[in-house]
Amino acid sequence: MAAAEYPDRPIRLVVPYAVGGTTDIIARVVGNKLGERLGQSVVVENRPGAGGSIGSAYAAKQPADGYTLVMAVESSHAVNPNVYARSAYDPVKDFAPISNLADVPNVLVVNPALPAPDLAAFLRLLKAEPDKYAFGSSGNGGLSHMNGELFLKTTGTRMLHVPYKGLGPALNDLVAGQVQVVFDNIPSSNPLIQAQRIRPLAVAAKQRLKVLPDVPTYAEAGLPAMNHPSWFGLAAPAGTPAAVLDKLNAAVREALADPATADAIEKQGAMPSPMSRDEFGALIAQSYGHWKTVVEDIKFEKMQ
């Protein structure tokens, strides 16, 4: 296929998570701008389930012609394949990387009633009474669960883990005090933070966030191992022609350079972060290796 002829019909963008989540929001913001630059509509298709594996496996099996794209994110392409005994796809071999789209800071949030105004005080609580407190997650093996386990491993502390079917229910119980801690990302937590219904203690970001200027990064708080924002990118099935991938990469860069697009992403607490195809491929491989090591270190029992 000649890149000059591509695209001549609408493009599907598979989102392996539910409508309204961070992945879906970023996909729709960027997808609209991609459509404008490519001269064809980009139609978002949500295929949630199994921590992103259902939609990702589906996308990997689609024709490699540039008309099916997929959101390739840290949870589905680095964490998920490492926490299942058998993965339905290879995050490196089965996909052709296009570009990262945005980095999304993670945030450690607690119930305001917890007597911990900062991370140091929180760690003192955990060390004084191991297993007294509980953290909620989006489910066993999800990124929020793994971030919690990494936190416990890094700090030498212990908490109970309470898995939920998504971060929405976990945050609801955090507000209600049924759990005391959640390892979330900024887009879903920030409205509750601004309403003072939950309290942020640290963020995983390269620098302090405009939306939370008084909250230190994990690195500032002495936990550099936690200071890695999540990445949300775009990929195609392996074998997609290089000329098509190059055209898509260029369109992504143009879309993210648009002030309105950047502003829409930044309002979610995320940061536009375009990359070359090779850079994004290297990020996926590096992140996959990182979480493979974490899963081994914490002796996580892989799921069937």
Automatic annotation (TrEMBL):
Pfam families recorded: TctC
Gene3D superfamilies: Bordetella uptake gene, domain 1, Periplasmic binding protein-like II
SUPFAM superfamilies: Periplasmic binding protein-like II
Matches recorded under InterPro entries: BUG, Bug_dom1
Family: Belongs to the UPF0065 (bug) family.
PANTHER family per UniProt: BLR1237 PROTEIN, TRICARBOXYLATE-BINDING PROTEIN
Name of the protein in question: Tripartite tricarboxylate transporter substrate binding protein
Species in which this protein is naturally found: Achromobacter veterisilvae
